[in-house]
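Researcher: Please predict.
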Amino acid sequence: MKIRTATSSDIDQITALIAPFIDEFAVDQNGRQLFTTHMIQRFIENSEVDYFVYENNHKIIGVIAYKQPAHLIHFFVNQSFQGKGIGRAMWEFVLNQLIQKHGSEHPSLENQSLECTVNSSCNAQVVYEKFGFKAISDVIINRGLRYVPMRFDFRFE
């Protein structure tokens, strides 16, 4: 099992992985369009997005992606593999990436903070809370999606 950067050859597997979750947060066709093969391709090619896959025996069982500086845009684990620490491993991987990038931008990290945001599906809110995220608003419906805006604050000491 490994976490690696997503490539264009992963798009079909990523789309298939995300598909069962779409109805949890997409309220109309506009929302569903944000998770098509074409949109995932755009994310992978976007220099402002870091997109990773969790792979087991050449099969993608998890994805996590963030738009710089620190907004999670995709975070999904295959339903058959949930509850096995894969989501936590991916979150810790990305958090370490963010801390390293933030550290290179701010050589003296004392009294600095890192903020990461996510628009969580209502079903995933409890998972994000376990990772330390806090809701910053009630449920919002925007651009065809229903979600809870959340924030994670990490303080460098």
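Model: The chain has a mean pLDDT of 92.
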